[in-house]
Give the backbone structure.
Amino acid sequence: MTDLRRIFADPHNLIVAPGRLLLEDGPRQGRGVLLRAGRFAAIAPLADLRARHPGARVVDLPDHLMMPGLIDTHTHLTQSLGKSLVFGEPSEIFRRIWVPLEGSLDEEMVYLSSKLAALECLRGGFTTAVDAGTRSAGHLGRLVDAARETGLRLVVARICNDKGGTVLVPDRACILQTAEAHLAAFAGDPLVHPSLAISIPEAASDAMLRDIAAMARSGGAVFQTHVNEHLVAVERSLLAHGRRPLEHLAHVGALGPQTLIAHSTLVTPSELNLLRDTGTAVAYNPVASVWKGNAVAPALQMQALGIRFGLGTDGTRADGFRLMDAAETMQRAGHGLAAGDASCGGGWLWLDAATRMAADASGLAAVTGRIGEGLAADFLLVDLDRPEFTPSHDLTWELVRYGNRDQIDAVFTNGRLRMAGGWPVDWDARALMARIRALAAPAIARAPIQRIHPTADSLFAGEGA
């Protein structure tokens, strides 16, 4: 394998010449990219770049695809310690598993959990993650530290519930003051972007929903909330307000271009119109629908209506290529087969939804999501010298259906090499994992988690005894 650590030790004033370069109009040959000061400084035919920048060092990578880093529009970094605890569990696992687990984490465990999740994100090709906020008691700064140390670009939410759902529920004035401070804390930060969140609409008063959404809008930040994910939550909203959750958000004025709705799986035609007319964005989380949801978001219909959306993991598994595959598969299974739609959006839609469209939904369209001049140099080098891409007839769709994280040779954010061959280049991931193995079981045991089913391991052992 090419010694990428040595080649990219000094990424300034460097021309990268990949075999294929994934641009907005598809994968192209014969193009090069000039990296300078952590950005894509120029993109042009390779001969032109060499002529215009004779002092730049050139890196030839004929067997690699250079593509934008993938963006996870919805995840939970402080849930990594309990990933498989939710397997086979019925819906609304946040009440029985995630809230108790996150609420029991001390400062060190928030840090370790977040760093493990960030490691998984980068290994899976995600250069950016949109975190929905931690329910732990005041340890958000350690989550940010963990992500920053790995080099992951982070949109991080401060949860602003005033009706429960977190360990601490301050009074209204304190919530608003803390939210304002959070928005101001990362001004000029190269990797961290603030966001505000209400975990679910029923966890906040109408006034808080309205005010936090407005504060995010005026601060140029994203407002996040989980909406229309589970049938029971829709029914609770109807009983409480006579309106479905999305309808209620519209009623209180919390929808708009600043708002990022996680899930939107149980949506009516009129609610789809609300999303379209307000410019609200959606995180389409196909793996979460399979593993723990009640339905699949109608992403193809959203695309046809012009609703903004990007792909998200919801903390399920951090493999960006498998996420794209799941996005297409769920639309095919849920809608395409019955309608005789053989393309279900085509490979280009799901690749776009994991990059450019995801950046737009995350409020980062001017920062990342494309290989474009002036944007942050967040990108992947994918090894094309693999059986899965041989022969290659349609690389765009092949990436969606044949791509996997073990084909990613390098991950970059802000022009810096962060991962090579699936491992960090400047910190010890195995030491982190060893520490988590030593501490995870006691942390889980302390949390008042309520599972409905035993683990598969215990059932298997019982049957074999």
In short: The mean pLDDT is 93. DSSP finds 18 helices and 17 strands in the chain. The radius of gyration is 22 Å.
